[in-house]
Inverse folding.
């Protein structure tokens, strides 16, 4: 849906680059091009930082060295949290596990034993997330998460977006799974929504992949060898100064 026309719309400093989850073909092509380049120079996988760099270049934005709240990539007053997830068959995936970084109730709330009161710990975890969302929204008009699912062969991909928002902590019930991790479930539906791991304090959000997600394939390029690169650069012994 397009932005509504308002009498004071001229006061909005930045308009959307494109509508939420309506990823344009030109953006998909630029993202695919960035991945083809990495494969061409010999990369066997794609990291979150790689995707952040590729996406920032595609939208002519900036990939922040340190996130501002949850904002990784920024363009004027728009911001994205860029996530990439490996999945054996991304075209059939219904959900994605989005790792949302270190989330320590001990550091933030002084909860030294997270298993004493798992509901209190889970609430603390969501409050930490909510505060990071607040920081991002205080600095940007729109904050989204853009997700890229990739298969191990890096030839099948799914891309989608969702708005970032605060979670109402009272809507979830927390329990401990057999691995000792905390699992957050919706009180209304019973669905698994979050996982928090005490070891490493890693917080994971279970994201539903929308029907409007974009599926695309990429043809793998030939790998550029070290020898071919050095030859194209006309590398020779004069480039090296040995100090003893």
């Amino acid at each position: 849906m397009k932005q509504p026309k308002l009498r004071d719309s001229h006061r909005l400093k930045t308009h959307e680059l494109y509508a939420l989850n309506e990823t344009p073909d030109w953006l998909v092509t630029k993202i695919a091009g960035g991945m083809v380049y990495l494969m061409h120079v010999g990369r066997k996988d794609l990291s979150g930082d790689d995707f952040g760099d590729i996406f920032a270049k595609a939208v002519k934005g900036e990939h922040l060295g340190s996130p501002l709240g949850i904002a990784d990539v920024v363009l004027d007053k728009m911001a994205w949290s860029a996530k990439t997830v490996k999945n054996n068959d991304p075209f059939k995936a219904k959900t994605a596990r989005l790792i949302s970084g270190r989330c320590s109730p001990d550091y933030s709330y002084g909860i030294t034993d997270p298993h004493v009161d798992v509901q209190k710990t889970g609430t603390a975890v969501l409050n930490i997330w909510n505060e990071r969302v607040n920081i991002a929204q205080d600095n940007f008009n729109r904050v989204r998460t853009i997700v890229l699912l990739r298969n191990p062969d890096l030839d099948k991909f799914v891309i989608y977006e969702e708005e970032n928002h605060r979670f109402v902590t009272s809507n979830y019930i927390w329990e401990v799974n057999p691995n000792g991790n905390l699992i957050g479930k919706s009180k209304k539906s019973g669905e698994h929504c979050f996982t928090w791991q005490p070891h490493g304090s890693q917080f994971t959000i279970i994201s539903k992949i929308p029907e409007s997600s974009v599926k695309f394939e990429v043809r793998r390029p030939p790998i550029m060898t070290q020898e071919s690169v050095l030859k194209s650069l006309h590398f020779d012994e004069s480039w090296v100064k040995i100090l003893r």
In short: The longest strand covers residues 78-86.
